[in-house]
Amino acid sequence: MKENKILKLIHVAWRERWSDSQWGINIKNVLPRGVSGDVYNLADCILQQALIGSTANPLVLNYLKHSLCAHLVSHAAVLKRIAKYEHFERLYCITSLLDFLDSVITGVTCRTKTEEAILPGAVVSLTSWLMQVFAMITAHYEIHRELNSEQSYMLDQCCLVIEKVIKNQFLMSTLYVGCHEDPDYYGQIRERYAAIKTSLTNSNFSPTHPSIETYLHQLAYVDVHHLDMHLLDIQPKPEPVTYCVQPLLTVDVLLNPCNDTSYYVAKMQMVQRLKKFSNTRLFYEIVRAGFVSLSNVMETTHDTMWGAFTFFKVPQIIKQLQALNRAVGEQTPNDYIPEVVEAIELLLEDKLLLDFMDSKCSCNIIEYLLNDWTKQHLVNDMHVKHFAAQRESTSVLLQKRDASAQAPSIINFIIRAEVPLSGVLKTLSTDYNKVQEALLGVLCQVLVGNSFDLILSVATVEGRLKTFVSRLIQCNENSKQVPGEMGKASIIRSTLFDVSFLMLTFIVQTYGSDAVLSNNGDSFFEKWVRECMIERNKPKNPRNMIVMCDENIVDELLLNLSKPEAQLKNTNITWQDICLNLPGVLYQVLIAWEKETLSSADVKNILDNIKRRLFSFSVCATSFLCAYMCSVKENELLKPLNLIQQFLAPPSAEEMSSQENIKERLGLSFQIIRKMQHDVRPTVNPKSRSITLVQNLVSQTPLMDQFQDVWRTVNENGWLPIRAAQILESLLHAGGPAWLTTRLLEEILKCKYIHDMMKTMDIVFAILHLDIELCTEALLTQVVPAMIQNRQGEDIDEPHLHVLARLCVYCIISAVETRHYRNFSYQKKRSRSHDGDDMDLNNTVKMRKINTDSSDNSSSNDFLGDGNLFSTHTSTHLRDTPNQLKESLQNSIQYIFKIFQQFLQTDKLSLKVYFVYQFVSLLVECGQERVRLVLNLLPTNLINNLLKVMLTDQISVGLIARLYDLRTSCGRQAAIADLSLWRNLKLKEHSIHL
């Protein structure tokens, strides 16, 4: 009914030649107050009457323009209606529509929710229509090889409209949103573009507009990168010096030495994205980090670990990174990687570091490194000669030094340790019944000197530690006591049981049971670890150990152990049963000694009898005593401590000569016992080097003083020493993530210059990886909100806010990706058998071999052969976008977003508001699609409120378009709402300037 009235009014207006103002007055009499003309298809009615004949009616088109200006009709409705016009043979009508578009296209806006719903589709339809017009003209030229004046003018106008669309960021962003609504329809636009391109090529036609082909391509393949985005990077190029790679690797090697290569690759890829590093720069930073860390360590264990990491793990990290970052179809030389050569060139500029490493390792470290890398085709012989020549003068000086003053190079031992490791694994995999004596000799030889440390380090970085552990467990299982076995066979079996048990216990102490054992292993050793072995940060209940004991076995053991040495007799109780029932024995001894029913001499006799059986028994007894000490009062510690000290008393010379291989087993058992004791009751001056592997929670020095001391070292060096990382890990456990994070952020706030802030932020970011998930949650829920709210304007202002926002974003990205990769690793572990490291060869790649004849074929899934790439599944996963957030991390992000909403309950621009803007902008800029799950948590009105407070010059359409998941209707709706608000604010700002 209303449409008929509108049509009649148009007829009257045309007959009486109404002016625009007359039209406006009269059409308002027809439309109800407050109702848009779109409800009654006003745009459709006007265009129907304007385009009846072969020529458009300019007067009626003016009525449409006036209706647009008076907001009687929406731009969306008009564009949608124009796009429906299909009479392309009416050149003058098409030309008039193009002229009309030329006059209104730059003013397109959106004012209501109804308009927002249809505008993206309308812009897509208009783009398709413009493509059709252009395609019609090019097709005509392809056939007739000429254009008349009307067609030339139409082409020029079409190009002009297309150019205005391209240069209008609001229209381009709306088109970008619209192309996600109906991908199939948008695909037709690309087909039309392909047809236009073919016509232009076939006809050799060059439009007068110079950039029209580029514009058409942008319309057909609109991308988020076509949308402007104000970047917050202080340095648009990668920073000249980075401080996060070395600390990050230090933390990872300290906490996760057993992780496969893909874990480190994922971390380095994250750094590469955040820092915008090229492959060359990233490779240089990784190699340099290895050298810096190796130059600092003094302890043999970490010396061998970092040496093995630098020489064995780093090449594999580089190869995987190069394979992941290589463009599809890119050809690279077969015998070297160009980026590695460029990275070594950069490394040679750091002469002080290389000179120190040459001196420490007693060799030309570059030549030594590259000689090994030639076997893996990272460099070739020509490069080795070239780089060695550049370091020749330093090598000559080293050779002139007094040979007696040169320490033997740990690097030589590390490289040589790979062959013994393969030999040990090969021997362990041989039939146990055939090689018992040879196996005992091999395992005892491993315990001589620091060979065990070397082999463990190489096995760890090569990913063969779990294979080593699983085969040691099998050896221990095979060595369990057989009833009735006597003589030499029994002695060999018992010694094998003892050696394998001690080696396994030492490995679990060093790396943690979670890292080296399966969750549900049913072997004797795995059961003992789960139920009886005390581990750092994994306390055991001594009462549970006692309850598990068999009373009959405990009584028999007490009776037998209480006798003098000369009266000891062989018992039918197996070694493994003794290990499990010693807690009951020691508990009874402690009670009897406390009640004075046993004298000190009796207690000593029992302990001596335990010691002289197997050294494993001393370890099992100590584990119970340490657990017991954790559950009693301070005044009850003396007796269990005395018992442990008795186990550490050296045996007599006669006892030392009575058993074979006693020295190596005794030394290893002493290390294990001291480490257990130190974890419970740390001593001021520990005697064993194994004790210094970790810093304990118990200390007489206040936490703040410890932190200040360690931070002073880190800040002065500009990198993270191993010892500092250990202390910081202990401070994290002692003070909690919120305490440590607060202390670290305080150090950032003390900096006065941007360079110092960014340096400190990088180091802090790496340190937070001691537990990135917990630290990120503390950062978002406790530390940053309190700092911003309580200390704004005091010592927190720009650029401190920018650095804090960047740190928060870095931590969120890392926490999300760490969770993503851990889920993947967990799925891989669950899909394997216990010894899957050397069985699952279909989805793994082969390890390089230094000596083919002596190498063991068992390897982990993370090693690369010379011509092979790592698992395609792994490669794809590293590129995937994370698809799950940990619940606690999600809650933390939602919490800080709620805090942001409180900041935005104002119309004044403040530092709090600017922090919100920087946080959101950096989240998009640094995380891109990989933080989509985080962006999906943004509250509905957060960006809307932020737009109302911030200047529109800083919040660009590129940022808004990247914030939302346009694959969903909710995401598109939120995006177009914010874009429309941005457009209206922009127009308002422009009108004020006018």
Automatic annotation (TrEMBL):
InterPro entries: Mediator_Med24. GO terms for biological process: positive regulation of transcription initiation by RNA polymerase II. It is found in: Nucleus. One of its GO terms (cellular component) is mediator complex. The keyword Nucleus applies. GO terms for molecular function: transcription coregulator activity. Belongs to the Mediator complex subunit 24 family. PANTHER family: MEDIATOR OF RNA POLYMERASE II TRANSCRIPTION SUBUNIT 24. This is Mediator of RNA polymerase II transcription subunit 24. It comes from Glossina brevipalpis. The lineage of its organism: Eukaryota, Metazoa, Ecdysozoa, Arthropoda, Hexapoda.
